[in-house]
Amino acid sequence: MATPIIDVAGLWTTFGKTVVHEDLNLQVEQGEVVALVGGSGSGKTTLLRQMLGLETPTRGTVTIFGDNLQEADSARLQQMRNRWGMLFQHGALFSALTTFDNVAQPMRELRTLPEDLIRDAVLLKLQMVGLTPADALKMPSDLSGGMVKRVALARALALEPELLFLDEPTAGLDPSLADSFVALIASLREAMQLTVVMVTHDLDTLLALSTRIAVLADKHLIAYGSAQEVIAVPHPFIEQFFLGGRGRRALQVLDQHGGPHEPLHEAT
Ligand SMILES: Nc1ncnc2c1ncn2[C@@H]1O[C@H](COP(=O)(O)OP(=O)(O)OP(=O)(O)O)[C@@H](O)[C@H]1O
Fold it and tell me: Matching InterPro entries, A to Z (predicted)?
């Protein structure tokens, strides 16, 4: 079997006496879109930061592209970081830089690409996310919320990553902008053959994009599978999240149109 893109094994996280994760095991295969869900404080953001190498688990390992993150030195970690992109919740653009320079920044940091090649690559990335060369000259303060997300996505994709992390990708967007952003992510994911890991509270986003859903609760991964498989797991968080009024409606739409779901992989 192929090496998973991400392999979280025996992971524990404690802050003082608080145990956040207790022996988590989670694998993400190539081409999957995995959504991390869980109640407030269940440790989604912490797990995402551990996958990004920004935090170290108390025990256990996070292996990405076959390399153990905790054992990687800073040069190796940087090489790995160049193979993934991250879209932060609020876009997190540099306010003093133009759209163009924001997208160019990861390419310039490599210090190996000539400026004319960077220029072409930035314009291509902007086109891929539905922005024009005229938008390249704008400052972040002149962009709408939806455009900021698109620029941030273009920047996350600047180095043609194999893996994309998304933190609440549709937070702050109104429903129609959220739908078009989700459609954009879906089409780029297909075109670039991306593996995606996202944290989201938004059921529509989750059901539209994810191939598997990982549910964190009670310090454990209590379910990991398709929406249908996850909702079959009896747990108060799952009932409230998926089977509350909004959840029911979203699942009805899924039943009518089908979803991108894969067979169940048991939670451990
Ligand atoms: N650096 C830290 N020091 C101490 N406690 C922390 C630290 N980072 C996170 N925690 C605690 O770990 C727990 C998990 O936090 P985390 O932010 O990962 O949860 P979350 O699932 O992302 O929550 P939310 O949905 O509210 O963002 C919380 O109880 C939080 O207070």
Answer: AAA+_ATPase (IPR003593), ABC_transporter-like_ATP-bd (IPR003439), P-loop_NTPase (IPR027417)
Q: What angle do CA 164, 55, 33 make, to 5 degrees?
A: 25
Domain boundaries along the sequence of the chain: 31-53+72-83+162-268, 94-160
- 12 to each of 21, 47, 80, 133, 195, how far by Cα in Å? 5, 10, 23, 46, 24
Q: Residue 268: what pLDDT? A: 39
- The pTM of the full predicted model, rounded to 2 decimals, is 0.89
- What angle (nearest 5°) sits at the alpha carbon of residue 54, between those of residues 148 and 58? 145
Q: Token pair for residue 204?
A: 């529509």
Q: Closest residue (by CA) to atom 13 of ligand 1?
A: 41
Contacts of 262 (CB under 8 A, 6+ apart): 32, 211, 212, 226
Q: How far is the CA of 22 from the centre of ligand 1 (A)?
A: 14
pLDDT value, residue 245: 63
- Ligand 1 pocket test, candidate residues 13, 14, 45, 240, most atoms within 8 A of CB: 45
Which is higher by pLDDT, 246 or 18? 18
Identify the architecture of domain 31-53+72-83+162-268 in CATH. Answer: 3-Layer(aba) Sandwich (3.40)
**232 CA to middle of ligand 1, Å?**
27
Q: Is the pLDDT of residue 249 over 70?
A: no
* Interval 149-206: pLDDT, tens: 999 999 999 999 999 999 999 988 888 889 999 999 999 999 999 999 999 999 999 9
Instruction: Report residues whose beta carbon is within 6 angstroms of any ligand 1 atom.
Output: 15, 20, 38, 40-46
